[in-house]
Specification:
- It is a single chain.
- By secondary structure, the protein is of the alpha/beta class.
- The chain is built from 28 helices and 28 strands.
- The strands form nine sheets. The protein has a four-stranded antiparallel β-sheet with strand order 5-4-13-15.
- Helix 10 packs across helix 16, helix 20 packs across helix 21 and helix 21 packs parallel to helix 23.
- The longest helix has 29 residues.
- The chain is elongated.
- The relative contact order is 0.09.
Length: 879
């Protein structure tokens, strides 16, 4: 083996080997095991969340593949309607072309062209982190087969009255001119203002003061509301107000939603421009007055002076006019949550439009039931409550988007506005017996991307056809995803699967935490704390890292702050760590918590772990390759150390299976790390040296130790492979032939199974006793600053008969491991000389101090330690 571990030299080579030899495809043997990859956006790049979740999914798939299951990890990408359209529109804008210049058909063709040329970046990046998905079955939500499934679902739901068209309030993006989902709205706290405006009462000199953060919506007011329990305003309830700018008469109403402590306790109600006001408007039968055009300019419903004004220019004019009318009471600074489109960055408006909706109540009932009955389990279980809370308060789902890229709604309108739904226009005409001259126009809208994603577990397996894949792999076994899309994706997949297949889509939902930076901050471009998994794998110099983090930032001040912080945190850039170290770190951090802090120090430690494993393999090969020719010939004798490591290995195997079943990747990584680094490398390799180097040891004993070195290492490689695929493959390929192992790759090897017959608890206790002695002596050397090379005499004092028996058995091993000159057994009647002491149970391990230390200096050190402990004791007692 090469002296130095170089991950980049091995990673691409092995991935190409795996993919070329189809190791990732289902074997067709064993119990089916299937995971559906949460489809990343076709526009996307690998981020920390992708790296984290895909590392965990790959660990599960590799484990179950090695455990003999017929595994399918279904790969695919999402067409990401608004994100993809935005990318292509930006490209066109650079050439001063708009999609409207091109027309719908040409624009969609251009998007497909972009998708083929550069839209699969994330697929290549996922290969970099070693995902063992079945690439031969890669799917795209706009594939023909998946598109047909989307149409089938839409038509069935429409025919059953579960899809309808209606006018309701939606999140509206004034830049992209489309409705967007809650997930596409980012609400962050910003500095704003609270305007206090005086509303005169009709036929009275009295007035009432309302506080608002959005004066531009004032032109759509249809009421003013107060809390019915607010004594200040009870006399005003039911009275009428003369609106100061529209001359409209509006009532003062009472509603418990109003918070008396906000502003003046009086709020204006604009049902067409606020979700809470919309609900209040329904309760009080208020009219809905929309004052905006789709681009957030004022429409013809407002008085003439404001028509056509952009919303913030209208705000300024409204404030100026109220000031002139002496109706602006005051203005206060106010922090508020501002909703912005995550793609456009502009402030989103609640907007009243005609949209397509899915009636969710009938779909939600069975989806609630299967979770209550335990047919689907959330892990950790606390997410079950979150799921149930949302499902029990579910509202109808707006599924239409005013885009061109996506699944176009399969609905056609005639000249009278009558709607017809079908697979295509020919299907509609045949179904409804419409003549060729009966003009039909297809709906311009496309479906929400989540609509097609909700069908992902079964549409990717061939539904509505009854394919072998659907029969074999559905329901799938586990969904691995984040808590942020339980509502948008997880719940909808459950509802759609039950509706259209009569089966649950998956048996378990493993909810991961959110990756944050080392300080617990959410990773975001505005904070400049984003880490790219590929940069962690390959490394990146400081200047390119700064350029990456500040790219696209509009504010120079923010960019400078990010640059300064990056220079401080990464003065030398980010070092290369390789894929295995990154994956192992993800697994080690996969606790049951909601937030996961990613600390680069952990990553560095796991890079060192790779080096440790590599060097251990080099030691094993150096001590076995030349002698392997006689391993199968002649007797084999296993030492106590051999039997100890084999016994401990069985417990590790048992725990590994338990951790996979319970999704405790963190505990699995911890135990593998501690066993490989501590038990195998630090202890067993050391314990093997006296056997292999001693002229007194028999050939059979040496043969037994060499065989144990190889067998244990080979087993550890298989245990570790699901977490660290590359380094384990590289080493396994060198180790396996020495053991006569068949198979082209560790990928297709069996996962180790526990052998209870290999456990010898007595030997374990004895070697643990030896380890305690050696550690005690090493601690004394450290405390006394005694060189590890210096031979020392050691006394055993107050030992039990069992200690004496063990000493007789392991004295020669102790002399070599602890580098001792002699070991003397003291009886209770003996008086040992002044010595440094360590304990092994009740037995004292003594190293005489004569000639080893400066007595006065040691006395001073001990007295100082005693004083320190006394002070600590006083503090503890004081508490």
């Amino acid at each position: 083996m090469e002296k130095t571990y170089n991950p980049h030299e091995i990673e691409q080579r092995w991935y190409e080997f795996w993919e070329k030899n189809h190791f990732f495809q289902p074997s067709g043997k064993g119990q089916p095991y299937c995971i559906m990859i949460p489809p990343p956006n076709v526009t996307g790049r690998l981020h920390m969340g992708h790296g984290f979740q895909n590392s965990l999914m790959d660990a599960l798939i590799r484990y179950h593949r090695m455990a003999g299951n017929n595994t399918l990890w279904q790969m695919g990408t999402d067409h990401a309607g608004i994100a993809t359209q935005m990318v292509v529109e930006r490209q066109l804008a650079e050439k001063n072309i708009s999609r409207h210049d091109m027309g719908r058909e040409a624009f969609v063709d251009r998007v497909w062209q972009w998708k083929e040329e550069s839209g699969n970046t994330i697929s290549q990046q996922l290969r970099r982190i070693g995902v063992s998905v079945d690439w031969s079955r890669e799917r795209f939500t706009m594939d023909d087969t998946l598109s047909e499934a989307v149409k089938e679902v839409f038509i069935q739901l429409y025919n059953e009255g579960l899809i309808y068209r209606g006018k309701r309030l939606v999140n509206w993006d004034p830049k992209f001119l489309t409705a967007i989902s809650d997930l596409e709205v980012i609400s962050e706290e910003e500095n704003g203002h609270l305007w206090y405006i005086r509303y005169p009462l009709l036929d009275s000199s009295d007035s009432i003061v309302v506080a608002t953060t959005r004066p531009e919506t004032l032109l759509g007011d249809t009421a003013v509301a107060v809390n019915p329990d607010d004594e200040r305003y009870q006399a005003f309830i039911g009275k009428q107000i003369k609106h100061p700018l529209t001359n409209r008469t509006i009532p003062i109403i009472a509603d418990t939603y109003v918070e008396p402590t906000f502003g003046t306790g009086c709020v204006k109600i604009t049902p067409a421009h606020d979700f809470n006001d919309y609900e209040m408007g329904k309760r009080h039968n208020l009219p809905l007055i929309n004052v905006f055009m789709p681009d957030a300019h004022m429409n013809d419903e407002v008085p003439e002076p404001y028509r056509g004004l952009e919303r913030y220019k209208a705000r300024k004019k409204i404030i100026d006019d109220l000031t002139d009318l002496q109706l602006l009471e005051k203005v206060e600074p106010h922090k508020l949550k501002v909703p912005r489109g995550d793609r456009s960055g502009v402030v989103v408006e609640p907007y009243l439009t005609d949209q397509w909706y899915v009636k969710m109540g009938p779909l939600a009932e069975p989806a609630i039931k299967v979770v209550e009955e335990g047919q689907i389990k959330f892990i950790p279980d606390n997410w079950t409550k979150t799921y149930n809370q949302w499902m029990n308060n579910i509202e109808d789902w707006c599924i239409s988007r005013q885009l061109w890229w996506g699944h176009r709604i399969p609905a056609w309108y005639d000249s009278e506005g009558k709607v017809y739904v079908g697979h295509n226009e020919i299907d509609v005409r045949n179904k409804h017996k419409l003549s060729d001259d009966h003009k039909l126009t297809q709906d311009d809208d496309v479906l929400d991307t989540w609509f097609s994603s909700a069908l992902w577990p079964f549409s990717t397996l061939g539904w509505p056809k009854k394919t072998n894949e659907l029969k074999t792999f559905f329901p799938t076994n586990v969904l691995v995803t984040g808590f942020d899309i339980i509502f948008f994706w997880v719940a909808r997949m459950i509802m759609m699967s039950l509706k259209f297949t009569g089966k649950i889509p998956f048996r378990e939902v493993y909810i991961t935490g959110l990756i944050r930076d080392a300080e617990g901050q959410k990773m975001s471009k505005s904070k400049g704390n984003i880490l790219d998994p590929i940069d962690l794998i390959d490394g990146i110099a400081l200047e390119p890292l700064i350029a990456k983090r500040t790219h696209g930032l509009m504010q120079p001040k923010m960019a400078k702050q990010i640059e300064t912080a990056t220079r401080k945190e990464f003065p030398n850039g980010i070092a290369s760590h390789g894929t295995d170290a990154v994956r192992f770190t993800y697994c080690a951090l996969a606790t049951t918590g909601r937030d996961i802090r990613f600390d680069l120090n952990r990553l560095e430690g796991n890079r060192n772990f790779c080096n440790k494993l590599w060097n251990a393999a080099r030691y094993v090969l150096m001590n076995t390759q030349e002698e392997m020719h006689d391993l199968g010939d002649g007797p084999v004798e296993f030492s106590a150390s051999d039997r100890w490591i084999k016994s401990q290995l069985q417990h590790l195997i048992q725990h590994a299976h338990q951790h996979f079943v319970t999704y405790r990747f963190d505990l699995l990584a911890k135990e593998l790390y501690e066993f490989i680094w501590g038990e195998y490398c630090d202890w067993y390799l050391e314990l093997s040296k006296p056997v292999l180097t001693s002229e007194e040891e028999s050939a059979a004993a040496k043969r037994g130790t060499r065989l144990t070195l190889l067998e244990v290492l080979e087993t550890l490689l298989r245990l570790l492979h699901p977490l660290m695929p590359y380094i384990t493959e590289e080493i396994w390929q060198r180790i396996a032939p020495l053991l006569g192992k068949n198979g082209d790759s560790i990928v297709s090897q069996s996962y180790p199974q526990m052998d209870r017959n290999a456990i010898d608890e007595n030997i374990v206790a004895e070697i643990e006793w030896v380890k305690t002695i050696v550690l005690g002596i090493r601690n004394i050397r450290g405390e006394m600053n005694i060189s590890p090379k210096k031979l020392l005499p050691v006394y055993f004092y107050k030992g039990a008969p069992l200690d004496k028996k063990r000493l007789d058995n392991y004295e020669s091993l102790l002399l070599k491991l602890a580098n001792l000159e002699s070991i003397t057994w003291f009886t209770p009647k003996d008086v040992p000389p002044p010595s440094a002491m360590a304990l092994a149970g009740q037995m004292e391990i003594l190293i005489p101090l004569a000639g080893l230390i400066d007595k006065e200096a040691e006395t001073a050190r001990l007295n100082k330690e005693i004083e320190k402990i006394k002070k600590e004791m006083q503090k503890i007692e004081g508490r």
